[in-house]
Write a structure and sequence with these properties.
Elements (H helix, E strand, L loop, with lengths): L6 E2 L2 E2 H12 L3 H6 L7 E2 L4 E2 L2 H5 L5 E8 L12 E12 L4 E4 L1 H4 L4 E5 L5 E10 L4 E5 L21 E6 L7 E12 L9 E4 L11 E3 L5 E8 L11 E5 H14 L5 E2 L2 E5 L2 H7 L7 E6 L4 H4 L7 E5 L2 E2 L3 H8 L7 E8 L2 E8 L1 E2 L5 E3 L4 E3 L2 E5 L5 E6 L4 H5 L6 E5 L2 E2 L3 H8 L5 E7 L2 E7 L1
Antiparallel strand pairs: 1-2, 3-4, 5-6, 5-8, 6-7, 7-10, 8-9, 9-10, 11-12, 11-14, 12-13, 13-16, 14-15, 15-16, 17-24, 18-19, 19-20, 20-21, 20-22, 22-23, 25-26, 26-27, 27-28, 28-29, 29-30, 29-31, 31-32
């Protein structure tokens, strides 16, 4: 059996737990000499417990059920049937605002929210954001409880964390772990700046809150890494409250998230590219190209620069930069640190409104509907980056795809690709992926 030791202020909680009975029965002078630490100790029951802070939060954690088109026999039964189930948290009791995951509500026709007191309410979808996997529902219900939100920017690896939700068909369930890592990204074409935790998260936990030891929301559980079978292996990810609150406010105000851009087309640094650049690091975002007339060009960024910090945060890959820019209002100024020819430089990027143009042409790159394309090593038109939340990401285009044709016509160079993808309307792409041919429809 594994024994876990928590430490507070340098004193082992396990040691204090073992010593508690002795201290409680010791003379007053001995108790006065004991360290006065704010440990969650229930003197009535003689146990350490986080129940006092957590129990008041649990009524604000709800179950979300998504109902979709009936797949039953064609007998006139068109009532929506349950198609997905997850968790959520009440952020605004007065307005009935519930936050959950986009993938919990995606494709649904109707939604219901179950409370811990047994009541169930129909919900209205206010808006959803695929790039961050956040969705907002609204219910009309009296007597709601509301969860408190804490800043995820103050988290530290090693902090206690609690996941709450409705996993695997069970009633509301609480699990405990620690913050295993911060700023995780590189797991997909989304705006990623995840909190990693080893608190048990399983199917059905999606959309539920990740709490700190005081019962405050620090993130929304969204995904896991599993060695097989889709079960919990102790690696789960949550959208930090910093990103969640920005997205929720945008969805409540506009029904969608309006993001700005800087004009820097980015790829991720890896070991192979680091050797090419002659660098001694493997983490960073490579400036693949700079859009003419953009903020990035005005700031002096050039192709080949490697961004290592943005704001006060170290950059792991292109996803780190995307996560910061993706929740910045147009007009926001962002400081970046970059390497160029082995020397460190600094620049200030201004986030600007996204242009309506579907295609941007750089020196050796085309950025079309969120997909960055260049001539690959074999001479084909290869996708090397896909912007989170973009039409390209929604269509399922991924880095490494080689575009062979658009609407049935072969495209052999970047100019032909730019012409084929410009304008409005769907585009049907034939792409080569891992030796197979795939069909992708760009909206």
């Amino acid at each position: 059996m594994r024994r876990t030791i928590f430490r507070t202020g340098g004193v082992s909680v396990l040691a204090l737990a073992l010593a508690a009975p002795l201290l409680l029965g010791a003379p007053a002078w001995a108790q006065d000499a004991a360290p006065q630490l704010p440990l969650p100790y229930d003197t009535e029951r003689g146990v350490f417990s986080f129940a006092t802070d957590l129990e008041r939060v649990l009524p604000a954690v709800v179950q979300v059920t998504t109902l979709g088109q009936s797949t039953g026999p064609s007998s006139g039964d068109n009532e929506p049937r349950p198609m997905a189930s997850g968790s959520g948290a009440v952020l605004d009791a007065a307005e009935g605002i519930v936050v959950t995951n986009n993938h919990v509500v995606e494709g649904g026709r109707k939604y219901t929210v179950d409370l811990t007191d047994g009541r169930i309410f129909d919900a209205v979808l206010i808006g959803a954001d695929k790039a961050t996997d956040i969705a907002v529902l609204k219910i009309v219900a009296p007597g709601l409880s509301q969860i408190e939100v804490a800043s995820s920017d103050r988290l530290r690896t090693g902090d206690l964390a609690f996941a709450v939700g409705y996993p695997l068909g069970l009633d509301q369930t609480l699990t405990m772990g620690v913050i295993s890592g911060l700023g995780r990204s590189g797991m997909g074409d989304r705006i990623e700046d995840y909190i990693q935790t080893d608190a048990a998260v399983n199917s059905g936990n999606s959309g539920g809150p990740l709490l700190d030891s005081r019962g405050r929301l620090i993130g929304i559980n969204t995904s896991i890494l599993s060695g097989g079978g889709g079960g919990n292996d102790g690696i789960a990810f949550a959208v930090p409250s910093r990103i969640m609150m920005y997205v929720v406010e945008q969805l409540r105000a506009n029904g969608e998230v309006k993001r700005g851009v800087t004009g820097a087309i980015l790829g991720s640094l890896n070991a192979e590219r680091s050797r090419t650049f002659g660098l001694g690091i493997v983490r960073g975002a490579v400036v693949e190209d700079v859009t003419p007339g953009s903020s990035a060009e005005a700031a002096g960024l050039r192709r080949g620069d490697v961004i290592t910090r943005i704001g006060n945060r170290p950059v792991s890959n292109a996803g780190t930069v995307q996560a910061t820019i993706g929740i910045a209002e147009p007009g926001t100024q962002v400081e970046v640190v970059y390497l160029r020819d082995g020397h460190e430089g600094r620049a200030t990027l201004t986030v600007t409104p996204r242009a309506e143009r579907q295609v941007v042409i750089g020196a050796d790159i085309v950025l079309a509907r969120g997909a960055s394309v260049r001539v690959g090593p074999s001479g084909g038109l290869q996708v090397f980056a896909v912007e989170g939340g973009s039409p390209a990401a929604a269509a399922g285009l991924v880095a490494g795809d080689v575009i062979r044709s658009v609407n049935g016509r072969s495209v052999s160079d970047l100019s032909a690709l730019a012409r084929a993808l410009d304008g409005t309307g769907e585009r049907r792409l034939s792409v080569e992926r891992g030796g197979d041919t795939e069909r992708v429809t760009l909206p």
